[in-house]
């Protein structure tokens, strides 16, 4: 007998690459190779996601606010978010500043009372300051939160009653008030006044977020 013997007719040779989907490639380490490839792809995905999240956190105001809201909702004790570069803090960040200015006509006559809507304060821990300016003489005036909203420490009231404000008007400083609120809150003030002339009173409410 010479040459190489022919294989039996019932022997099917192993398929050559590319293998059919139903065939298992040869080798003891094939599954490890596939696992290693999967791990590399997961690392690449994490790298891409990290770039996307960092870009959003740096440049997307809506995403930044989303993070702030999520941290506030969780009650986490992570460092508070704010700024130290002299810029205005974004809404929801420590140091956020808001101001509401409202004007009330003051007619001449006997003592009167009128409601004055200021503004809506968003959830948070705030220091609230209120002050009023009149633009004429012979005015007695008092202002105060009425009713006191839930979470407000006092009426943020101020008054100059029983004396005149001078020919050019005057400024009345109210008490500082802490507002610790969990829902958007409308601030409504009552204004008591008596005036020798027809004029206006301007109420300014300022608030700075503590947390």
Fold and architecture overview:
This protein has 211 residues and is α+β, with helices and mostly antiparallel strands. The chain has two domains: 30-74; 97-209, Jelly Rolls, CATH 2.60.120. Helix content is 21%, strand content 36%.
Question: What layout of secondary structure does this protein have?
Answer:
Elements: H1 30-59, H2 61-74, E1 97-106, E2 109-121, E3 124-134, E4 139-145, E5 158-160, E6 170-173, E7 177-181, E8 185-195, E9 199-209
Antiparallel strand pairs: 1-9, 2-8, 3-6, 3-7, 3-9, 4-5, 4-8
Helix pairs in contact: 1-2
Quickly list its features.
36% strand, 5-stranded antiparallel beta sheet, 9 strands, 4-stranded antiparallel beta sheet, Jelly Rolls, 211 residues, 2 domains, alpha+beta
Helix content: 10-25%
Number of helices: 2
Share in β-strands: 35-45%
CATH-derived topology of the largest domain: Jelly Rolls
Summarize the biggest pleated sheet: 5 strands, antiparallel
Instruction: Give the low-pLDDT segments.
Output: none
CATH class descriptor of the largest domain: Mainly Beta
The best one-word shape is rod-shaped
Beta strand count: 9
Number of domains: 2
Can you give the mean pLDDT? 82
Euclidean distance between termini CA atoms: 96 Å
The CATH architecture name of the largest domain reads: Sandwich
SSE pattern = HHEEEEEEEEE
Classify the secondary structure makeup into a structural class: alpha+beta
What does the radius of gyration come to? Answer: 36 Å
What can be said about this structure in brief?
By secondary structure, the chain is of the alpha+beta class. The protein is built from 2 helices and 9 strands, in the order ααβββββββββ.
């Amino acid at each position: 007998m010479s040459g190489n013997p022919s294989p039996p007719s019932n022997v099917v040779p192993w398929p050559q690459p590319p293998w059919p989907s139903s065939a298992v490639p040869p080798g003891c380490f094939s599954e490890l190779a596939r696992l290693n490839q999967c791990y590399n792809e997961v690392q690449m995905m994490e790298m891409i996601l990290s770039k996307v999240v960092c870009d959003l956190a740096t440049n997307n105001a809506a995403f930044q606010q989303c993070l702030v809201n999520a941290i506030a909702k969780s009650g986490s004790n992570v460092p508070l978010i704010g700024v130290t570069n002299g810029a205005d803090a974004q809404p929801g960040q420590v140091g956020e500043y808001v101001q509401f200015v409202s004007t009330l006509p003051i007619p001449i006559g006997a003592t009167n009372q009128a409601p004055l809507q200021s503004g809506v304060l968003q959830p948070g821990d705030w220091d609230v300051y209120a002050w009023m300016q009149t633009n004429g003489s012979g005015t007695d005036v008092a202002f105060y939160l009425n009713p006191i909203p839930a979470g407000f420490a006092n009426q943020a009231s101020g008054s100059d009653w029983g004396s005149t404000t001078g020919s050019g008007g005057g400024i009345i400083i109210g008490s500082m008030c802490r507002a610790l609120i969990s829902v958007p809150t409308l601030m409504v003030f009552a204004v008591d006044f008596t005036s020798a002339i027809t004029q206006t009173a301007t109420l300014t409410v300022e608030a700075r977020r503590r947390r």
